[in-house]
Amino acid sequence: MADNVDVVEGCRLPVLRKNQEHEDEWPLAEILSVKEVSSRKLYYVHYIDFNKRLDEWVTLDRLDLKKLQFPKKEAKTPTKNGLPGSRPSSPERERKSLDLNVQTTTTTTATAPSRGKTLPAPKRKAEPPAPLAPQVSPAPPVPSLPSSAEASQAAVYPAARESTTFKSREDHEQLTSLTTNGTAARRLIPPQPGRKRKANCGGTDEVWKSTLSNVGVVLNQDSQDSSDGIPTAPRMTGSLVSDRSHDDIVTRMKNIECIELGRHRLKPWYFSPYPQELTSLPILYLCEFCLKYVKSLKCLQRHLTKCNLRHPPGNEIYRKGTISFFEIDGRKNKTYSQNLCLIAKCFLDHKTLYYDTDPFLFYVMTEYDSKGFHIVGYFSKEKESTEDYNVACILTLPPYQRRGYGKLLIEFSYELSKVEGKTGTPEKPLSDLGLLSYRSYWSQTILEILMDLKPDNGERPQITINEISEITSVKKEDVISTLQYLNLINYYKGQYILTLSEEIVDGHEKAMQKRHLRIDPKCLHFTPKDWSKRGKW
Amino acid sequence: MSKLSFRARALDASKPLPVFRCEDLPDLHEYASINRAVPQMPTGMEKEEESEHHLQRAISAQQVWGEKRDNMVIPVPEAECNIPHYESLYPGEFKMPKQLIHIQPFSLDTEKPDYDLDSEDALFVKEKEITELQFEEMIDRLEKGSGQQLVSLQEAKLLLKEDDELIKEVFEYWSHKRKNSGALIPAVKQEKRDSSSTSDPYVAFRRRTEKMQTRKNRKNDEVSYEKMLKLRRDLSRAVTILEMIKRREKSKRELLHLTLEIVEKRNAMPDLGAEVMAEALAQRALVKPVYTIPLLPLSNSQYRHPDLNELKDYKKPEKTEPVRTKRKYEKKPKIPVSAAHHSGPAFFSPKDLNQYDFPSSDDEYSQIVSGSSEAEEETDPDGNFAFRRKSGCHYYASRPEQSGNWPWMSPTEGGLGDPRFRFCLTSLNAPRRCVGLARRRVGRGGRILLDRAHSDLDPGLDLASVSPLDSPLHRRSTSDNHTSDLSSPLPPPSSKTPVDLSQILLNIKSCRWRHFRPRTVSQYAPGSGGLCRGGFRDLSRTVSGLTRTLSAQTRTGPGQLPVNVFTVEQYQHHQEQVALMQRQQLEQSQLQQQQTTATTAPQPTKTQVCVFKGLHLSSAPSAPQPFLQPNSSSPSQPPSTPHPTAAAAALGLLGNAAPSTTQVLIGNNLCLSVPTSRHLPRALATVPASALKLSSNANLPSLPNLPNLPSLENHEEEKASLNSLSDNTVAMEVT
After folding, report:
1. ipTM of the complex
2. Interior angle at CA B419, CA B414 and CA B420, nearest 5
């Protein structure tokens, strides 16, 4: 048909997909990219209100062209507001409006029709045409249409701030007027991408475009902690709060078709910065034990003749039955840590690989069989955390999901915190699966305690939130949110009480019956190190 | 109370919450309206994702059913299991170790090549009949040898150790393959230096330019770094100082031992007349180097007026001298008899001297002189006395035939018996005149006696009494109350000498000639100290034929009587100093006792001390006693001894040098700094003794530079530190 020519990036239309019951459904989707493979056009679609992991390449016949909506510049921003669930595009838009410092509704997202670019392959994208910008930054394929190239470089999106994590989009919109945090004339280093690696906290190191002030852009005053400044790079911890690179069209698309790891073939969910030349392969082969990536089965065979590892290259600090945990120092074992991060990134949307792995410890959970210790999942943890994080990123590899391993990982992370004598919390943002897993773990852990409470001297059993927190090492806020979520907190006759409903009790008992995998603290051989005294991670 | 209209209190995490079963609270629902007082906690998810369809579905399913239904889970892309070739890929079995696996550091670093051969390579390898591993190693080297620029064939030949033919083939194969497919070992993109890669999504694992912030508001980095630097500097300085103290104390100990030894040896010799000592001194004087460091023993230092504080410090060098003397003395049996008097170790360069900022004792000097290190000193049997040639020093050939023919020897030994070794120029205050060569000793009741010696100088010396040298003193003494009386009758000189007066004055002024004047010494004492150092040598060259002098008792003459000008103020000051010195003396009394028994005049010396003490303790300010130099007189000069100087010097050393080498140190410096220190006493005269000492010490750092020893400046800093240290040492000894 002739009209398929019109299906370009940014278009929205219903796209056919099978749901879990294998029924056809036609959710609204956005075309993120178009490519042609053997004279057949393929469309990369993001199902709106569905997680990005379900994004996929579809053929033309799955598009409902009758309901095609062309991207409209003017309509864009309102649309965004109307579609709060469509996360991938919105931050981009917000940032752009910041950059421009204009109250225009200029569409700057990847959906901009003017871009008219196709992605020939998962290869690196061509430069955004950016017709309005005579000289755009060469390096990043930022899908932006800044009215001023300089402004586009400014990239002042206060993303990495904790505080913005839960900020509504409306808040972001207000950022159109920018203010430098008190320091009007900030020196900046290179005119180009205008960002610097830096901690997102610590006011001294932020880099600011002098051109920004020229353009008359003022930075938002809102930052509660003035030291925050504008992050020019992702925060240095493990999880990625939305930031500019995250909104990059490249990173919004899966780039690896398939990964073979041991017995399993995995379909990546998200972008991962494996070497670009490997992204065009139908299958990326990984050594099951050292996680080295090679381009072909032959290479993997060769590699396996040279690789002696049959377990993660770290110290085993826990073993019970077939389950073991290995501790890997991100500084001492860089290669493995990086390989682990690369594969983890395939399944973690909010993970950042921006910085090296030095400040992290990686706890890899393995299951033993006669071939060796097979990786099941892992979590990373900052050696020193400012904010009580006891987990940075956490992942159960897809083949092992929904079998209780995730909860086991979480349980293990809290066991470590117990040994350390601290309470901890996972780094935010949580993914959907992360939220469900943690909520489930918290609920079961807290309910376990509440149900075990015995009345002492005939008095009604009671417990404080702090006590729960101390027993479980779950941070107080998480305890409260769980109690709330379970609807256990009630105000009764002038005081707060905890009430256990029958459904809760039954549900808990049923769930606990299914929870076979538990961490046995006696099997943990772990001595926390005081990393602050080491000077180096 | 069916309905509550008030707001619930905030949730208190530390307040116990009673736990109820819902069935126990049938009326709970009535309170439901206010249950929402607890603020809703954030989920921790990104806002946009929170509302995602499948999540919401799962959450609501969980809330409805208490658990997730299978069809309500969040869908994910499928994973495939059970790859058929798995078994062949991972052959063999791995037995689980009994122990927890503990990885050894660096055990992971294998020498295996990172490059993995692919099927295309396999063909090539088969064709070339090399092993796969060999091929991989070669490619690995080529890959890793290439940066932006590919390895050239020449470089490849250097990189690879195979034969040229194979290298060429592999190289060509490699270059061709690389041209087609880029780097053969795929690696994650590195950041570029120019920071152009900051937003390249394929760049990962960037180096952290700053350490991740682990504590907020920690801004002290630079400041603390500087503090650490300073701390390190301070600590290392302290270490240096302690090192020096250690050396100093060692030296002091050795000094003590040597002094004891010298006394014993002299007693055994018996060198009661100090001839041997004098010879040693003269020898040193001859060999003595170009610059003025108080190396010479001022054997008659007791003649000088010591009643001011800096003088005390100043005396220190003198006290150390017996050590040197003794050292010479030890040598003596060898050297004078067998060989070179001139070849002593006395030559040393200022540079050496400055190796240590504060040579605190003779031991250090000799150490410097000999260039020996501490370690050497310990291993060398001769210790400090081992002769070591120093570069840049002149060594004279030995003159054995002349041995014994030194001017300081008595005529019986073929020497000249030059009196300059035991006498010094002496001036009196009132009448203001110079009495020529004389030496002082203390008579009964603390009286000071001057033993005068005849010399050729005598005729001219009368004129010297009004020399410019004295002018400041003169002014001072005239402004003072002259409560003085004649402390002792002095024998007049009787003979004439042709020596040019102006030359003598010149000698005095240029510190080559010692000059002594009772009473107001303080103001020119440093100068005279300098004189003392250089005096003998000059004298020995210009003066000859002096007759030997006898003790004052036999030579009473119409004399220029030294006037003891003594004011109340001075007296009090003097008292303080005396008290101070008594303390030191008490400390040393035991030692002295040992020493004095070895000398020929033990009794006098000892009683002298006692008398001296008693005198000052009992005397009232209103009734000044005729003592002149209580400080220096105490340990010295038994009147009955014919050759008291050497003994006195030794004793003086014992009395004063031993307690504090620090003071010796300072004295050394003072001697060097004649010009400035001259002006000190006046200002200091009224200050309490200890304060005086400290302040004079405090003045020291700037002084050492004065006397044309520019190299000293290099050590100014350490000097200052050491100086302040010695400050403390002194203070501690005083109190």
Report:
1. 0.71
2. 115
Contact A355/A334 with Cβ under 8 angstroms?
Answer: no
SS3 B435: strand
Q: How far is Cα B173 from Cα B127, in angstroms, rounded to an integer? A: 12
Read off the amino acid at residue B259.
T
Tens digits of per-residue pLDDT, B427-464?
777 677 777 777 778 888 888 777 777 776 666 655 55
- Note the pLDDT tens digit of each residue in B610-625: 334 433 443 344 444 4
Q: Which two tokens stand for residue B711?
A: 């190299």
Rounded to whole angstroms, the Cα distance separating B102 from B99 reads 8
Strand order in the sheet with A264-266: A293-294, A284-286, A259-261, A264-266, B79-80
Contact with chain B for residue A301, Cβ under 8 A: yes
Domain boundaries, chain B: 106-181, 226-266, 421-462
d(CA A329, CA A389): 17
Report the candidate in B89, B369, B63 with the shortest Cα–Cα distance to residue A443. B63
- Residues of chain A short of pLDDT 50, as ranges, are 1-4, 74-231, 244-246
Domains of chain A: 11-67 (2.30.30.140), 256-429 (3.40.630.30), 433-519 (1.10.10.10)
Query: Higher confidence at residue A32 or residue B544?
Result: A32
B182 C-beta neighbours (distance < 10 Å), count: 11
Beta strands in A105-155 (DSSP E): none
Rounded to the nearest 10 degrees, how much is the dihedral formed by the CA atoms of B310, B311, B312, B314? 90
Measured CA to CA, the distance from residue B414 to residue B416 in angstroms comes to: 7
Radius of gyration of chain A (CA): 25
The DSSP annotation for A404-423 comes to THHHHHHHHHHHHHHHHT--
The answer to whether the Cβ–Cβ distance between A201 and B28 falls below 8 Å is: no
> CA–CA separation, A295 vs A532, rounded Å?
40
Compute, in degrees rounded to 10, the torsion defined by CA atoms B283, B289, B290, B291: -100
pTM of this structure: 0.53
* pLDDT tens sequence across A305-350: 999 899 999 999 999 999 999 999 999 899 999 999 999 999 999 9
Pairwise CA distance, residues B613 & B582, whole Å: 7
Distances (CA, A) of B535 to B288, B341, B388, B422, B605: 11, 19, 27, 12, 27
Contact in structure between B185 and B140 (CB atoms under 8 Å)? yes
> Is residue A327 less than 8 Å (CB to CB) from chain B?
no
Cite the active site residues of A.
427
Q: Which residues on chain B are in Cβ contact (under 8 Å) with A501? A: 21-22
Closest to A16 (Cα-Cα) out of A64, A85, A82:
A64
H runs (alpha helix) in B380-497: 458-464, 471-479
Residues A341, A342, A345: CA angle, nearest 5 degrees: 80
Q: Let me know: does B490 contact B557? Beta carbons within 8 Å.
A: yes
- Lookup result for tokens 């300081």: B408
d(CA A95, CA A176): 9
Complete DSSP assignment for A1-47: -GGGGG--TT-EEEB-EE-TTS-EE--EEEEEEEEEETTEEEEEEEE
Tokens in use for A263? 């017995």
Sign of the C-alpha dihedral computed for residues B95, B96, B100 and B105 taken in this order: positive
Q: If we measure between CA atoms, which residue out of B521, B523, B516 comes closest to residue B452?
A: B516
Take residue A503 and report the two structure tokens written for it: 């459904």
Using a CB-CB distance cutoff of 8 angstroms, which residues of chain B are in contact with residue A265?
Answer: 79-81, 83
Which amino acid would we find at residue A82? G
CB contact under 8 A, B74 and A86: no
Residue B20 dihedral angles phi and psi, to the nearest 5°: -115, 155
> What distance in Å separates the CA atoms of residue A384 and residue B71, rounded to the nearest whole number?
40
| Helix H or strand E segment including A56 | strand A56-59
- Chosen for mutation from A244, A274, A306 (greatest number of chain B CBs closer than 10 Å) is A306
- Kindly determine whether residue B49 and residue A476, on different chains, have CB atoms separated by under 8 Å: no
